[in-house]
Each structure stands twice: as structure tokens, then as C-alpha cells.
Amino acid sequence: MKLAVVGATGLVGSVIIRVLEEGKYLIHSDIKEFIPVASEKSVGKEIGYLGKDYKIVGLSDAVEKKPDVAIFSAGASTSLRWAPEFSKAGTIVIDNSSAWRLYDHVPLVVPEVNLSAIKPGDRIIANPNCSTIQLALTLAPLHKYFRIKRLVVSTYQSVTGSGIRGVRQLKAERLDIFTGLPRAYPHQIDLNLIPQGGDFTDNGYTTEELKLVNETRKILDDYTIMITSTVVRVPVYGGHSESVNIEFHNPFVLDDIRRILQHTPGLVVVDDPGHSKYPMPLDAEGKDEVFVGRIRRDESQANSLNLWIVADNLRKGAATNAVQIAASITKSTQKQTE
Q1: pLDDT per residue over 173-188, tens digit each?
Q2: Percent of the chain scoring above 90 in pLDDT
Q3: pLDDT, tens digit, 9 for 90 and up, residues 58-69
Q4: CB burial of residue 147 (10 Å; 0-12, 13-18, 19+)
Q5: Are the C-beta atoms of 330 and 1 separated by less than 8 Å?
Q6: 28 an active-site residue?
């Protein structure tokens, strides 16, 4: 395929390139042309891929090159403006922003969960929110067997979820250096927790909290699930963590929960509390898997369970998931041409 990475110079864009270079999902021979795309201020600069330097092009030039697939990680406004232009040129767009996720005609995909949501002719495919991906991957097999009735989710989100601006703010505060750079958060993040992700809406919830609610329902294809969420930004680099309380319609045996999770592709169970073994963002950093532990029954409510879920939000939460989708498109195309 001819593959474009839109937003190649950004934090997620750089991780997309790293995942592509690793060749775990898309083998290098699958990519016959690599097209890095960024804003006008970066056009003409060079970016490395597999030991070779490529000149960055602008969005208009990238559309004219008619890539087969374009992975977007350049913000919602850019996606709303340019994804339709790429799709008109015959490109399949995999979009990391929130722009297209809740459109009925746009599939919202976690490959291990609902790859079948992608239909022939789909030209825009949405990558879910980073916190939603790790949540949906863990919940999907449990929902299949026990049917989820209600979720209470609290997330503890890394500063990398706010892009390079969040990383710079934490580093500057930790080193006690005043940089004068724009702040990512309304308060100090070092040695602090900020119970706000995104902007507040009229009902008192933030945009990040509502993403968890709406996207989870769409991916699991069940709008009857009752969900409430709280998003907290924490001074961590490695990944997002989630405390999840699940009430099922059906009774369960705890050993069955563990067995189901252990056999779910993309999940790793780390659950040995007697030896202080449980998922932590420090251990998840740089890895593609979603880690789950602290698996225990909620003894205050019938048919209820507590889980702790951790994943690298730049990898599985963004770049890896998008590359996995691109790989599935390649395999589908190869089958059609055989």
C-alpha cells in the first residue's frame, strides 16, 4: 500500500512511525510508499523511516498522491476538513481524533473486538479514545458471557494523553524550570491530581468522560449499558490506568472471569496480589498489550466485579490500534485480489 501518516511530527505520529518500523502488524514489504504529512511549518523538513529520510508534505500534496491508507493523528478540526478530501481520492482514512467516532455511518473499531464493523466501501474508520480502547478490549469477552448491566469507571490518565504540551508541563514543573511554554492544564500537574479531562459540559461531566460512555456503548453495540465515569489526570508518563466496577445481568464464577480474560487476544492478566503483582503504567510503557489485574468480586452488590486495567495510551491506545486496522485492510485487500 501507499501509506500516509498525517501528523507525522506529533507525539502520536512519531509512535505510529515506530510501530510501523517494528513491522509486527504491517510487514515492511506491505508498504510500497511512505508519505509523511504535517502542517505547513513542517513541510520540506525530513523525517526518518526505516533508516531513510523522507520529505514531509502538506495535506493538499498528500491528497494528490492518492495514498491507499492515511492514518490521521492531527486533531479533530484537521480530520473534519481533510478526511473527506482523502476519501474522495479513494483513500481509506483511519482517524485518531474524536471527529468521526459517533457518526452512525463511521465504524469505531478495536480490531480484537469488532473488526467486522468495517464494511466494504467504508472510507473513514474511527480509532476510539485511548481510554475506551483498553476498556472495551477487556469488557467485550465478559459482556459476551455475562451481559453488562452497569459500569462505574474512574481513569487515571497519563500526561502523554495531552500530547507534547502535557509532557513539557510535567517535565518543567518537576525540574522547577519556568519555560514560558503554553500550559496543558489549568493547575500544576507535578505532585498533583487534576479531576478534569477535556472541557466541562452542561451536565458537569467532561468531554473525556462522555467519550468513555458513548464510545464504549458503540463498540460493544449495546446502548442499554448504564455507564458513569470520572477522568483524572495524573503525573505519569507511561500509560492510562482504570478502576472499573462492573455489574452483570448474569451470575459469574471468579475463576471463569480469569480464564476468559487470560484467553482474550491482546490482554495480559497480572493478578497476584499476595506478591504485589498487578498492572502499573511503568510496566505497560512501550508495550502493545492491555494489562488487567486486581480481579475481585464486589461483595456489596450481586453479580458485580472490580478490575484494574492499564495500557500504554500512545501505543494500543492510539498508534498500535490504528496500525492494526491498517493491517486488517491490507489482508482484506490481498484476499480479494487472490
Answers
A1: 999 887 777 899 999 9
A2: 94
A3: 999 999 999 999
A4: middle
A5: yes
A6: no
